[in-house]
């Protein structure tokens, strides 16, 4: 029997491992000489592979074989910090997309609600225009008010309706506003204004008596105490620009020379616009009576800001 056959298992394993290492060294040296290998700092030596015995049939000698010398490819550890940053960026992007979608949904809901409200109020105004009894004005002076009509501040339960928005009324005029009581709505009369048409901006609405909060829900308000159509004096008419039908929304689109047609039960009168002006809410001088037949249209301005009033002046067209 040869010396190799007398080797123990551990000796045989070391012998095979050393031969394997020698062959691997020769192969690496050859690759280095051929320029196919770049020498770097060697990694820590791996423990020798464990030989696994192959069981031979009974009576046969034991032989030992080593696994093939394939170098295990170990992928470098992943950088967890970069993964977390990537995940955080994706989450932030999703949050931003959700916020934009939510904003568009809110804006659409506001627009749709406003549209439905205007449609419902337009139907109510049309239904009430046929049955509403329009009273005749009294001799109440126009200049009793200290702030122009068509304000956006709604009434409070248990109190009289308030005019204007917060901040519109100077402090020294607050007592006068608190003591102001709107004149009573007069009884119906055939000469009262019942309908207003402004062809240039597509206005065709009913005129109601009074310009308080409840009256301006129904249509264009005729200030109690102002003149009647076709007569000497100033017909003061007001309406909202962004609620309750947005009747006077486009007053700023009018120009001198455009027509305003005001109708009564008996006749219609045509007024020609001569100027347009933007004033403060307390500039009630625009409601003053005139010595000739005229009309004044009043609404809040600008659209959905409403800290001013837009005023349109027109005179009766002479045949």
Structure description:
By secondary structure, this protein is of the alpha+beta class. It folds into two domains: about 5-65, no CATH class; about 110-315, Sortase (Sortase, Chain: A, Beta Barrel), CATH 2.40.260. It contains four helices and ten strands. The chain has helices at about 10-35, 80-130, 175-180, 215, and strands at about 50-55, 65, 195-200, 205-210, 220, 235-240, 260-265, 270-280, 295-300, 310-315. It has an eight-stranded mixed beta barrel. Strands 1-2 form a two-stranded antiparallel ribbon. A hairpin with a 4-residue loop joins strand 7 (about 260-265) and strand 8 (about 270-280). It is rod-shaped.
Compact summary:
The chain has 4 helices and 10 strands, in the order αββααββαββββββ. It has 319 residues and is α+β, with helices and mostly antiparallel strands.
Features:
alpha+beta; Sortase, Chain: A; 8-stranded mixed β-barrel; 10 strands; 19% strand; rod-shaped
Any chance you could write out the topology, listing elements then pairs?
Blueprint: H1 9-33, E1 52-54, E2 63-65, H2 80-131, H3 174-179, E3 195-198, E4 203-209, H4 213-216, E5 220-222, E6 233-238, E7 259-263, E8 268-279, E9 293-301, E10 308-316
């Amino acid at each position: 029997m040869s010396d190799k056959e007398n080797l123990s298992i551990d000796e045989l394993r070391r012998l095979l491992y050393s031969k394997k290492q020698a062959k691997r060294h020769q192969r690496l040296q050859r690759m280095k000489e051929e320029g196919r290998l770049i020498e770097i700092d060697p990694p820590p030596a791996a423990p020798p592979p464990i030989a696994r015995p192959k069981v031979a049939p009974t009576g046969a000698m034991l032989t030992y074989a080593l696994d093939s010398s394939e170098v295990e490819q170990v992928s470098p550890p992943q950088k967890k910090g970069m993964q977390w940053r990537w995940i955080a960026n994706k989450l932030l992007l999703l949050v931003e997309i959700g916020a934009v979608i939510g904003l568009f949904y809110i804006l659409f809901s506001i627009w749709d609600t406003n549209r439905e409200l205007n449609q419902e109020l337009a139907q109510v105004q049309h239904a009430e225009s046929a049955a509403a009894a329009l009273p005749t004005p009294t001799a109440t002076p126009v200049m009793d008010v200290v702030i122009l009509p068509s304000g956006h501040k709604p009434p409070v339960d248990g109190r009289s309706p308030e005019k204007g928005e917060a901040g519109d009324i100077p402090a020294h005029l607050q007592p006068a506003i608190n003591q102001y009581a709107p004149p009573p709505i007069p009884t119906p009369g055939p000469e009262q204004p019942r309908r207003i048409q402004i062809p240039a901006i597509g206005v065709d609405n009913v005129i109601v008596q009074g310009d308080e909060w409840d009256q301006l829900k129904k249509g264009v308000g005729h200030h109690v105490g102002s003149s009647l159509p076709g007569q000497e004096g100033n017909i003061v008419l007001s309406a909202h620009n962004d609620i309750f039908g947005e009747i006077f929304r486009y007053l700023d689109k009018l120009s001198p020379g455009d027509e305003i047609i005001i109708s009564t039960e008996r006749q219609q009168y045509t007024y020609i616009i001569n100027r347009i002006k933007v004033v403060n809410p307390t500039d009630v001088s625009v409601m003053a009576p005139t010595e000739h037949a005229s009309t004044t249209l009043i609404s809040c301005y600008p659209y959905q800001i409403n800290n001013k009033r837009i005023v349109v002046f027109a005179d009766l067209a002479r045949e």
